[in-house]
Predict the 3D structure of the following.
Amino acid sequence: MTTWTQLSDELSVSEQIAAHDLGALYAAGFRTVICNRPDDEGGDTQPKQQDIAQAAQALGMQFAYLPLLPGQIDANDATAFAACLRELPSPALAYCRTGKRSQTVYELAKTHGLLATATPAAASVVIVGGGSAGIAVAASLLARQADLDIVIIEPNDTHYYQPAWTLVGGGAFASEDTARPMASVMPAGVRWMKLAVARFEPARQAVVLSNGSELAYEQLIVCPGLELYWEGIEGLEETLGSHGVTSNYRYDLAPYTWQLVQSLADGKAIFTQPPMPIKCAGAPQKAMYLSCDYWRKSGRLNQINVEFCNAGAVLFGVPTFVPPLMQYVERYGIDLSFNERLVKVDGPAKTAWFDVTDSAGQVSRVAKTFDLLHVVPPQRAPDIVRNSPLADAAGWCAVDQHTLQSTQFANVFSLGDVCSSPNAKTMAAVRKQVVVVAENLLALRAGRAMATRYDGYGACPLTVEKGKVVMAEFGFGGKLLPTFPLNPAVARRSQWFLKATVLPMVYWQLMLKGREWLARPTAT
């Protein structure tokens, strides 16, 4: 079993489960399991309900066996099902072969008025988003106040360590090592609502969920990440993953990048960067440098014309790091093209079109052919934030950049890629922001001043070759904020070890578990 459908705060339904699924279900917050599938319906391949009952009971979960026959569900079944929901602890997961019978008997119980009208759900703290920011801030809050009532709203089953996708595209990391089941990273003590948010209602201190229900809160943390706007480039979605068009910004495409890099013997390789802001502003270059390093070491670089088409006007936003990057641009013979924004792709024709802005501000459209095209899509805040009372003029969740408290609603905080703070949108920034939000939110709840202030810290490990990294660490205004007393503009093997080996362990074993190693912002 990989997924379930939430019908209410008390009930979700799924297809057939097995005994080994119970650990993940318990971690996801379920306390009752209801079997609606008769034994032996699927022959010897069907897991026995007795085995599932034993696995559930071993975890302290309740189990009920209420077999239902397809097309024969009646009022008596609905009454028995309603009794299970009323008498056993919630939330419950009901299952059958596909989940349809479980949903049918639930709807019949509702129709007959057998289910009590639920009071609106509520939590002390509601966190929207189960990515890096959401999981880490929940764990940090619980590390400070273990009895805090927290709900995380997150519809996805899988949690990703996205910073390693660049390494996957460069053949230096296994893609499967960047993904884990969402249930495995959900902090113990947190209630996980496997739904999406449909609408924010901050004036009423509530969020409206995708199933139409509402969830009230005392404090809200907004961290759903940003939206990769693939459709903002004409023709791109139709050709991604084929015809030499790829992107390390998607889990399923990063391995294709590495396939293309290995197979390209000659021709034209174009790497693009859209207008800011984007998550990890150095990632478009990282893909290019790792590819060039592979081609150089395999003796092909002289046969490959590499071009970097950047919608911006500079190679990197912090001037300190431009000279060391330019050394690698020159080493690899890369053609730099600034003020060029990718607007259209025709994969079968191996052609990309760019809107080019000249020094007078005039825009012209230029076509370029390619053999490999690595695309970084334009990025923006999700619709639910962009079209909400929480948004600033650009669509991001408006916050005070130092406290990360909403500028519109005092009981709302935001962190991660969606917030308006003018920092680099990186996982490293989230590590510091987590401390700020956790401490300031608890201070607000206790009626104290919010003393913890964010310094704008962000880090971009620039993988300039396989085995060396320029570790760019900086805060608001481009102020250098190096963690270690080393010249940050020098490419180092030690920083590659940090990027490829240490930081993934820090992420999974420390950050997502509320252990804040080197995570406190500097005093401001």
Remarks:
- The chain has a mean pLDDT of 94.
